[in-house]
């Protein structure tokens, strides 16, 4: 990973906004982001010269339901297997800290499903599971 370091740490709301903007994703208000980030179970960053170039986190109930969220690599650093590094760190953390039967979920960005299949995630719908669903609150 060249001179890019993997660091287990929380990020600030400003860093979170910058990461999401870098890939063209929308984001909630800064105050809401701050609350959500405080409730993150685990997060990992990729840093180059103290700048975050990749990020991922785990959210959930902390016991038997986890969600992998916000796997982001800045566009100029994509196609270097950095996302694989983030996911490997996240999956290692989960396997070390959670029991058999823990449900690990995620919502893949469109066209990124094959990336997550490398980590043994299954696409929904399939013969066993219905489609994943989502709703954003718009006030």
UniProtKB/TrEMBL annotation:
Keywords: Acyltransferase, Transferase. Residues 2-138 form the N-acetyltransferase domain. Transmembrane segments: none annotated. The keyword S-adenosyl-L-methionine does not apply. GO terms for molecular function: N-acetyltransferase activity. It comes from the Bacteria. Gene3D superfamilies: 3.40.630.30. InterPro entries: Acyl_CoA_acyltransferase (IPR016181), GNAT_dom (IPR000182), NSI-like (IPR045039). GO terms for cellular component: cytoplasm. This is GCN5-related N-acetyltransferase. The lineage of its organism: Bacteria, Bacillati, Bacillota, Clostridia, Eubacteriales.
């Amino acid at each position: 990973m060249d001179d890019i370091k993997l660091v287990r740490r929380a990020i600030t709301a400003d860093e979170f906004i910058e990461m999401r903007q870098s890939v063209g994703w929308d984001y909630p208000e800064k105050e809401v982001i701050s609350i959500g980030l405080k409730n993150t179970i685990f997060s990992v960053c990729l840093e180059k010269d103290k700048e975050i170039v990749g990020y991922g986190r785990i959210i959930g109930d902390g016991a038997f339901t986890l969600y992998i969220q916000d796997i982001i690599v800045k566009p100029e650093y994509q196609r270097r297997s950095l996302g694989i590094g983030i996911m490997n760190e996240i999956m290692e953390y989960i396997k070390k800290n959670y029991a058999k039967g823990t449900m690990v979920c995620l919502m893949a960005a469109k066209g990124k499903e094959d990336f997550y299949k490398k980590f043994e995630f299954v696409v929904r719908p399939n013969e066993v599971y219905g489609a994943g669903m989502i709703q954003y609150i718009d006030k």
